[in-house]
From TrEMBL:
One of its GO terms (molecular function) is cyclic-guanylate-specific phosphodiesterase activity. Residues 489-742 form the EAL domain. It holds the Pfam family EAL. PROSITE patterns: EAL (PS50883), GGDEF (PS50887). The chain crosses the membrane at residues 12-34, 46-66, 78-98, 110-130, 142-164, 176-195, 207-225, 246-264. Keywords: Membrane, Transmembrane, Transmembrane helix. InterPro entries: Cyclic-di-GMP_PDE-like (IPR050706), EAL_dom (IPR001633), EAL_sf (IPR035919), GGDEF_dom (IPR000160), Nucleotide_cyclase (IPR029787), Rev_trsase/Diguanyl_cyclase (IPR043128). This is Bifunctional diguanylate cyclase/phosphodiesterase. The lineage of its organism: Bacteria, Bacillati, Actinomycetota, Actinomycetes, Mycobacteriales. SUPFAM superfamilies: EAL domain-like (SSF141868), Nucleotide cyclase (SSF55073). Residues 331-464 form the GGDEF domain.
């Protein structure tokens, strides 16, 4: 097989043969490279195709040997026909190895398409070439068999190529189209060679050689393109390509339009092609309509029906594809996990229709935060995920957009409510090129649960030190029934979260007076929430929400910062005032609590004895064994410990012995009737005496009148606190009160 040059000289013939060998060898090498860059079935397909083109190159080399050594073209048949015939056999195997998207039903359709293509091509080939070859070589069976094998084998390869192309994935259609064209050119050249050989019209430099050369060039191009085309992930529903609609009918159209004028006479030579065209057009329209319906079904199968976002299957598919492109193109891939806090409260209080409306609006806001090419998916329930492709800095920017998107309240049933998400971000690091997509999703979930445990509105980015301890979702307790004030609870919770996040809680201070001389010996910090529409709220209006939804840590940290800052201000004014702060009892399981408090005091230059930690007695009941060592360390550092609301629960008096404490604060209800009820007075007197015997200071809180105050003073109570002595007041009023009490004000 040689290229056409200016003359038919010996030198030109050899040069043509060398160029042809180079082309076939180059196509084989390109196929080897394509096999090395592929995986799975495409790798095996290209490896087989490399063998097929290698056989072609070997046949060209033998042809060159005939021209150089014997200085004549090979006879027909010749030894060169062996590798030449091996090419279509190996090429057929190679094309059959390329993956196709087919189900049991589509495989049956595939079989009929293949039969249709093969029969139509054979009919067309017979009318154009094979009948003449049969007439010429019917007396020489060997020559006839070899001459017939080329077009027949080419027909088989071309049929397989057409069928595979019709069922190929979208990203593989370009290379398979080129392979089909290359095989078609080879089949055309082989058929033309068989045709002209009958008349002895083939010679070195024939135009047929150009067709073979073009075929080899297209093979090489297909192999080169394959190296840059990633294998796509499998879709849940496969949609046939546009090519698959018309390609099976192309051979029928050719055979039905070209064949009849060659073999028919009269009116039928015109009417038969018209019938064939009509049938093909009708089938193509029907196939196009089926494809459109299947495309709609495939899209619905990959979309969340409530929000219209991608569903879990589509998200995993796109993430797998993004990770594949990342490994080849050094691109950044990040996954963001978003989970709505307290969404169960929306469902239980407002009902499922309202909750579905919230989810739709959340989906819209998330979609508005991302760029074209990113993917937003609803993974199920109130869980969403975002696939971000591009620069790492961009993923962090989008994460902050998501946080900002939830600052605006949602309007549901005419009422506004704030919803806060827990957000985790995981970025595929450059040092892990083989990172699995599921691992990246798991890391984003770990970061999201870390944000949920911290009750933080900020984005938590995954790092290696994070340890997954499971979804620490706050338990809302017993299942709630839908209630009339459900929307108000949700709205109040959202506003509370917003107030905590922005430091919009206040602290007031109630003075504690020594009952023997009336001097201010300390203050207790009391939490207040200045609500923009409901006015100033006391803790009993919102503390249940704080406890139920895991906000106690944030509230406590906020209160401690404000209280210690105020204490530092008072000291700067020359008024060192001891401060008592309530701590949620479970905090006392934190062995780092003493060190944390001491560090906070040292940072402000405050002495440890200035701080008293109050723990609620009824909450300590199940915590005694755990908190004892923490309480002991607090006192070793100089921080005082008090039991608050003593007498409100059912704890045993042995706690006064077992717990290392400095103060007992008698609950207001416990001491309210001491001046009028002898039994109550006897109990309170016994507690005061017992506490003193143990070296514990007794503080009476909730003192409302002078009669109760006098009784407590007479029976040895150390400190009084309540409206009778002073109402809670702002921090800037405390120094004046201390000076006034020290001067002996008229109480």
């Amino acid at each position: 097989m040689t290229l056409v040059l200016a003359d038919g000289s010996y030198a030109a013939t050899v040069l043509d043969d060398l160029i042809t060998v180079a082309l076939s060898s180059y196509a084989a090498v390109c196929s080897v490279l394509a096999a090395r860059s592929a995986d799975g079935r495409p790798r095996r397909a290209w490896a087989t195709m490399a063998g097929a083109l290698g056989a072609w190159a070997l046949g060209d080399a033998m042809w060159l040997a005939y021209d150089v050594v014997l200085q004549r073209e090979p006879p027909s048949p010749s030894v060169a026909d062996i590798p030449y015939l091996a090419f279509p056999v190996l090429a057929a195997v190679a094309m059959a190895r390329f993956p196709t998207a087919s189900t049991r039903q589509s495989r049956l359709r595939l079989l009929f398409d293949a039969a249709n293509v093969a029969l139509c091509l054979f009919l067309l080939l017979w009318m154009l070439v094979l009948n003449r070859v049969f007439d010429e070589y019917s007396h020489d069976k060997v020559t006839f068999s070899v001459a017939l094998l080329y077009p027949v084998l080419d027909l088989v390869v071309l049929t397989i190529a057409v069928v595979v192309l019709a069922r190929a994935e979208a990203t593989q259609r370009r290379e398979l189209s080129l392979l089909t064209v290359a095989i078609g050119l080879a089949a055309l050249a082989d058929s033309a060679y068989a045709y002209v050989t009958v008349d002895g019209g083939y010679g070195t430099g024939n135009v047929i050689d150009l067709i073979w050369a073009a075929s080899l060039a297209v093979f090489a191009i297909a192999a080169l393109i394959s190296q840059r085309t990633p294998e796509p992930p499998k879709q849940a529903v496969s949609v046939p390509s546009n090519t698959s609609l018309w390609l099976p009918y192309a051979p029928l159209l050719l055979a039905g339009t070209i064949g009849p004028p060659l073999v028919m006479t009269g009116f039928e030579r015109f009417i038969v092609p018209l019938i064939v065209v009509t049938v093909c057009a009708r089938q193509s329209v029907a196939a196009w309509e089926n494809r459109r319906l299947l495309a709609v079904a495939a899209d619905e199968a990959l979309r969340d029906p409530l929000t219209g976002l991608a569903n879990r299957n589509l998200f995993h598919e796109r993430l797998a594809h993004a990770m594949m492109l990342r490994s080849r193109g050094n691109r950044s891939v990040a996954v963001m996990s978003v989970d709505l806090d307290d969404f169960k409260l929306v469902n239980d209080s407002l009902g499922h229709p309202a909750a579905d409306d919230v989810l739709r609006r959340v989906g819209q806001r998330l979609a508005g935060c991302v760029r074209t090419g990113d993917t937003v998916a609803r993974m199920g329930g109130d869980e969403f995920a975002l696939l971000l492709e591009g620069r790492v800095d961009d993923s962090h920017l989008i994460a902050h957009r998501v946080v900002a998107a939830f600052q605006e309240p949602f309007t549901v049933d005419g009422q506004e409510m704030l919803m806060r998400p827990s957000i985790g971000l995981a970025v595929a690091p450059e040092g892990e090129p083989d990172l699995e997509p599921d691992t990246l999703i798991e890391r984003a979930d770990i970061a999201m649960y870390a944000a949920k445990r911290a009750r933080s509105s900020e984005v938590h980015t995954f790092h290696a030190e994070m340890v997954m301890t499971g979804p620490d979702v706050v338990d809302l307790g017993e299942s709630r029934r839908p209630s009339a004030d459900g929307a108000a609870q949700i709205r109040l919770l959202g506003e509370l979260r917003h107030a905590i996040d922005h430091g919009r809680l206040d602290v007031v201070y109630q003075p504690k007076l020594a009952l023997d001389n009336g001097t201010v010996v300390g203050v207790e910090a009391l939490l207040r929430w200045p609500h923009p529409t409901l006015g100033t709220l006391r803790p009993d209006a919102f503390l249940s929400l704080v406890r139920q939804h895991g906000l106690m840590r944030q509230v406590t940290d906020l209160v401690l910062d404000m209280v210690l800052d105020d204490a530092a201000t008072w000291i700067a004014l020359g008024v060192p005032i001891p401060i008592a702060v309530n701590l949620f009892a479970p905090f006392l399981r934190d062995t780092q609590l003493p060190d944390t408090l001491i560090l906070a005091l040292e940072q402000r230059g405050l002495p440890a004895e200035l701080l008293t930690v109050e723990i609620t007695e009824d909450l300590v009941l199940s915590e005694v064994a755990m908190v004892t060592s923490v309480l002991r360390r607090l006192r070793e550092h100089g921080i005082k410990v008090a039991i608050d609301d003593f007498g409100s629960g059912y704890s045993a008096l042995s706690y006064l012995r077992d717990l290392t404490i400095d103060e007992v604060k008698l609950d207001g209800h416990f001491i309210a009737s001491v001046a009028t009820d002898t039994r109550a007075a006897a109990v309170v007197r016994a507690v005061i005496d017992l506490a003193h015997d143990l070296g514990i200071i007794v503080v009476a809180e909730g003192v409302e009148d002078a009669e109760t105050a006098n009784w407590l003073q007479q029976h040895g109570c150390d400190v009084g606190q309540g409206y009778h002595f002073g109402r809670p007041m702002d921090a800037d009023l405390i120094p004046g009160l201390v000076h006034l009490a020290a001067a002996g004000p008229d109480r």
